[in-house]
Specification:
2 copies of one chain form a homodimer. With about 260 residues, chain A is mainly α. Chain A is about 65% helix and about 0% strand. The interface of A and B includes residues 172, 184, 219, 244 and 254 of A.
């Protein structure tokens, strides 16, 4: 379903969306690349103008709002999952409802009921979609470099205003709503599997011992970032993230 | 000031308080020991009955409600600092006020204004008083044993219902109220200094290299506990806490 928002987008909004998204996404929206091999079309020539407008209404600069490949169904999914997180940041999980999400995403409520069984599923999938874009899994051929990129992306994601807002709301609501813990476990199970594959490639290359407890390593990799953002109110910079990576890898290989 | 609550305490409440506090605190309230070298007095012989009653009204079983040494001034402090945390758990930091704290603690508002400059100071001191009781700093002569006891106490404190309630409220409110970050930094600066002394004794005994970055080690020691409680919704047990300690100490000495 083409979003209602797409149909009413004003040219100046579309212009902002273009500036926000980066031009490469415009002329070949199916290729998620930041390189720029040939000159962009002028924006008025872009055929996928409604798809561009989908990215307009909120959170400019958020990577997950950028164009992703896929047809109408994928666009509806994206609009819905974005709306879920926006609703949570604005009003908390308790007030989240299929009705409000449908209204915000500009889709029919029935569409949501067809695709998601309940709020817990919706939350887990929205978090996975957001984090999948904001914190991609690197594969540079070097575990140290991969983990540096991973921690940098996590640090940027959880210390951004939007990321902090979402995280703090969920941490707070989870004390009252047990299903948030369920969604958190679904989310983290998937994220640990993805990060586990990154670490696993390092093990295969001999950068870590074969008996490495991958999940325990990932916990100790990301925990200090969350501690600083949520608990001790200390800043995080790239050097700090790198120190965590180095401490883990150096100790794992020194043993 | 003797608390109003103390004067109206019923014998059965005092009995509960005694059961809660542990008898050693009764007959020698100035000695904070759990050992029991001679038979306790019967509770009706206890002279400090009003002090006992101070511990009655709320949060039975919370270690910070136990009797601590000190006179009237110390008791007022304790009542006020307890009231601060109770108010925050119930209503959040934004609604915290000297008026409400004074009313809850049963003391005059002027008393609070004499002792604390603002809410930020009050929060930092309340957190330090609570955590000082709930998470004492061990000194067993072995760094590994000290850090195990420390992580066990932290895990128990932050996963208890009261501890989680307080932590989640502060994490949530800190996104809206910058002075919570100020109080957090005061709190953590003091706690890191105390834990740093524990680690420092280990360094002096040769259990860690002299160039150990003590603060970085403490961050990596406690971070996985907070990650599991606040973020990944995974349970913590003593074996997990011990693994964190072992991983840190074994890697620090293997390098």
């Amino acid at each position: 379903m083409r979003s209602r928002r797409a149909c009413v987008a004003r040219p100046e909004d579309v212009g902002l969306a273009i500036a926000d998204m980066g031009l490469p996404f415009l002329w070949r929206p199916d290729v998620a690349t930041r390189t720029f091999p040939r000159p962009p079309l002028l924006w008025q020539h872009v055929v996928a103008i409604e798809e561009v407008a989908m990215a307009v209404p909120s959170r400019r600069g958020d990577p997950r709002r950028r164009m992703r490949p896929g047809g109408r169904s994928a666009r509806v999914n994206e609009a819905v999952l974005d709306a879920v997180l926006d609703e949570i940041v604005e009003s908390g999980y308790a007030k989240l409802s299929f009705e409000r999400v449908a209204a915000r995403a500009g889709v029919h409520k029935a569409t949501l009921y067809r695709r998601w069984a309940n709020k817990e599923e919706l939350l887990a999938e929205a978090l996975l979609a957001h984090t999948g874009s904001a914190v991609p899994m690197p594969d540079t051929g070097s575990l140290r470099e991969d983990l540096r990129r991973l921690t940098h992306a996590i640090a940027a994601n959880i210390s951004s205003p939007d990321g902090q807002g979402l995280l703090r709301t969920l941490v707070s609501d989870a004390g009252r709503v047990p299903e948030i813990a369920g969604a958190a476990r679904t989310f983290w199970s998937e994220r640990f599997a993805l990060a586990g594959a990154v670490v696993g490639r390092g093990v295969e290359r001999g950068e870590l011992p074969p008996d490495t407890d991958v999940a325990f390593l990932i916990e100790r990799l990301i925990a200090p970032l969350f501690l600083r953002v949520l608990v001790t109110a200390e800043p995080i910079d790239a050097a700090y993230a790198d120190r965590i990576v180095d401490a883990l890898l150096d100790s794992a290989t020194a043993g």
